Amino acid sequence: MKKYLSFFRIRFLAGLQYRAAAWAGISTQFAWGGMTILMFWAFYKNGENVFPMSFSALSSYIWLQQALLAMFMAWSYDNEIFNTITTGNIAYELCRPCDLYTMWFVKNMALRLSRVVLRCLPILLIAAVLPSPFGIRLPATPLAAFLFLISAMLGFFVLIAFNMLIYISAFYTVSPVGIRILATSVVEFFAGAVIPLPFFPTYLQPILNALPFASIQNTPFLIYTGVLDGQDACRTIMLQCLWLAALVVIGLLLMRRALRKVVVQGG
């Protein structure tokens, strides 16, 4: 365990060095979040339909999405891992006295969390002082806040476990670019990153909510905003646990199979 904590610490501290990039990201995310909220505000003011979320809840959803973007963004990958596979440097990784899957999993956690630490608080502070209903509000109850924290960490792990499958796929492809683009598009759409899942047609929602992508950011944000509460929140958290276990098991099996057949050329 100590060696994995060392990997985490090294990658986490390395990620904290990019402060200028963090400030650029904060300004971009705040501007994007504001434009998204104003776009939805136009629909809410001029629409005749009953919307599935109150505008205040939707604003909280969007600000959480921006504040925790580095934690849940599907397009963020560790390029060092892809380069390690495609260049043949995986041979050096296999010489380390540690489990490759766990090491990559921990590195991905550290990379994302280092970016969240730099960007999250300023966005939340600014969003908290915005006038209602455009700002972020606190969870309705302490229980909702507690369940949100649990669900957010589970969603974080689910995303990394899914990304591990993309890394492993690089063992079987000449270039990982195609599978990265496809996976990013699928995850972003079905995780509620483009449009929150409650806005999808009612007949599609049972299918969308059953997919692993809904367990990433949709579930914790809906718990925070109060759209999911009580037994519904507990059920979705259990579904997150099931998807996390399934993705980790699949990833471990695929990693073991890939390493049995890996061939490194050159010398």
Short summary of the structure?
71% of the residues lie in helices and 0% in strands. With 267 residues, it is mostly helical. Helix 1 packs across helix 7, helix 3 (55-67) crosses helix 11 and helix 7 (100-128) crosses helix 8.
| Low-confidence runs | none
Measured as a percent range, the helix fraction is over 70%
Estimated radius of gyration: 20 Å
Report the end-to-end length measured between terminal Cα atoms.
32 Å
Number of strands: 0
* Class of secondary structure makeup: mainly alpha
Mean pLDDT: 87
User: How many separate structural domains?
Assistant: 1
Tertiary shape = globular
**Strand-residue proportion:** under 5%
The biggest beta sheet, please?
none
Q: How many separate helices?
A: 12
N-to-C order of helices and strands: HHHHHHHHHHHH
How would you explain this protein's 3D organization?
The protein is mainly α and 267 residues long. The protein has one domain (2-261). The protein is 71% helix and 0% strand. The protein contains 12 helices and no strands. The model has no long low-confidence stretch (mean pLDDT 87).
Essential attributes:
single chain, 267 residues, globular, mainly alpha
List the SSEs and their pairings.
Elements: H1 2-15, H2 19-46, H3 55-67, H4 69-72, H5 79-87, H6 90-94, H7 100-128, H8 142-169, H9 177-190, H10 205-210, H11 218-225, H12 230-261
